[in-house]
Input
Amino acid sequence: MRRFAWTVAILAAVTPAGSAAQIQLSGKVIDETKVAVARAVVSLRSATLEPAGSPSWQATSDATGAFRVEVPAAGRYWLRAEREGFFLLDNYPVDVDTGLNDITVELQHQRELHESIDVSYSPASIDLEQVAVEESVGAGDVIAVPYPSTHSFENAMRIMPGGVTQDARGEIHFNGAAADQTYWTLDGFNITDPLTGRFRTDLSVEATRSLTLSSARYSAEYGKGAAGTLAIQTGMGDDRFRYSATNFVPGLESRKGLIIGDWRPRVNVSGPVAKGRAWFFNSLNAEYSQHVVNELPKGQDRRVSYGVSNLLRGQFNVTPSNVLHSGILLNTFQSPRTGLSTLDPLPTTLDMRSRQAFFHIKDQQYFANGGVLEFGYARNATFGREIPQGSDLYILTPIGRRGTYFADARRWSTRHQWLGNVLAPSFSFGGTHTIKSGVDLNTLGYRQAIDRTGYERWALDGTPRRRVLFAGNGRFRRNSTEAAWYLQDVWKLQPRLVVGLGLRQDWDRIVRDWTVSPRLSVNWSPPRWDDTKLSFGYAVVHDATHLRAFTRHLDQYTLTTVFDPLGGAAFGPAVTVFETEPRGLRAPRYVNWSAGIEQRLPGGFFARANYLRRRGRDGFVFANGVNSGITREGRTPADFGGAGFAAVYRMMNYRRDVYDAVEITVRKNFRKQYTWLGSYTRSRARSNAVLDIDIETLTTFTDNFGPVPWDAPHRLLSWSYFPLSEKWAFAYMLEWRSGFPFSVEDEEGRIIGAMNSRRFPDFLELNTHLERRFNLGGHRWAVRGGVNNLTDRLNPTLVNNNISAPNFLQYTGGTSRAFVTRIRWLGKKE
Output
């Protein structure tokens, strides 16, 4: 801290203070629904000078939308207001006199334009007061970029630059972390699964206003996720009724005959409830998907899934300074024959069903002195059902699976969240301080009813090598409570020097450990480098305590029998149990060091380079303590009906994680509403707890250290959407990355060699699409056609990793070259 104090003092000394101004222009930036827009950059330049030689004076709006610009003299000025995610307001005339000057600036949220309107998207800008490392994509990009399955919310996140990867199961990973190490918010509230901490929500991409990933040196307002916070902001109506529909006509595919393959119609409606005061937004997303496995016989080669998702949001401006937000999201989904593949025939699959109901309400109060008070409540309830095709044993062989899956499960989980935040009016003390503080309270509940049978591992000749049977009661409940408070100060010492100081504390009823998370960031724009920002940061982050890990001792246990090569019992039945004793445990702790540079380049290019170093310790891991021959509760194998212990897994703070990454991103807005982006990331992600052990883990191992399954040392991403003419546009997306690692196992399920010692082939995908917009029957339309995976690269998602199999290292899965179309109705022609 002494070194930091000297650094701040030196930077403050070498950074010149702003010159005295004669006239002040004050104002407020709002959006189309009169809500304050924070961090908008407002600049003025003289209307009497040529643009090339005209100096500019600028300021950034605070959380209330307020800004203050000082100019040297009265006269006419051209105002420019920009904020990423909004349309650019430029060359707006403002007359400044020697009296009181106060104006209101209205910015319109960026959206996909259906009319010929002369507006531009706001370009990426240098925001000196932004303390976090942010990756953000807007609504226009989410709809325009041709990522595969453009209905998929998870796939849409692939267009984000940096350390973003999607594993073979479709889960998204940020900055080398596990899927449950990201704190997901929907319109400001926690939307993660209350049981696992993962994102399990089906949401229409057309409902998205912006996706913003904050990582490394982010505000103390956010915690419970080593990878960062992914904030999803959804749409809202305005004073004009708007309609759109996508893929409302099903398409035919030729897959062992003509079928309806993927059909995902979406409908969006928004508009005023009371003009100028209340608005609504509704997004309906339906899904029908039919997947065909060519290698399986007819009648057993298809998997059909279907579901519906609906988001309804409302906003009511009670007064100009009091805004009420509310919303409800409902999901239902069914997927019979889940898991069907060349190695998993129909009897081994599961019928999966899920439901989710998410409700939230938030009240925001703005005060004349610049303060903001908000409080809100949210409830998230989920239900999951897994139904096997029968009650036979599940058989794992070197050439595939047989029998029926072993788990018949029902799971219920809920979260109630109460939050409150207060932003104090800015004040001066050794610079300008903007302080925000708040609390976050959560109650969580989980209930399950699971019946498991068992599974066997067979050798290639059909003889059993290992049998695992489940016993005990799989029905229980578990509840928890979480509490947190934070304090964040954005301290502007000089116009070119900003320091972010934060402190956060978290507590939960399970571990009962008050964790302390300090945050520090420094942003500096060197003198005469107006278009450059240098950043440095340090942050301590703690992971959430997920109920899934702390309920394993309440679940069933296993009895394992090992057979000799002739099929006779060589060992067992031996018992495997889990023990979770929270006393003495500490919350996982991660330390982030980061540095970055942002630069606005000639020609309208914006470049950024970031470095992130994260080290994690005290992570939860189950370690085998079988040598004791007795559990902590004093129970012996005889209490479980076994001849001995195969394993007694006890939760400990043994996990260590390592992540390093360097990311370079360049982007450019051109022709007002179009964007090009290119990004390269070099990273590594390692852990000494690669596999998370639970009662349903099918493999055994002795060394759990290696690269994590989603580790991708190299990732190159580029995409663009640009016009060819007034009616035609071309879009592409290119992604290349290293193949994910995997392990090799023998016929008994034991890992051979080092964990994740092999890798899939490199992933390469190039999608090219052409779109035409036109008017027909008094309505606006957009028709898109293109090719996904233009190079027809295999990009496998499955591999036979059994060293005893005749088709060892045979890669399957993935998608071949595909011709796709998209039809969109964009509403009535005005």
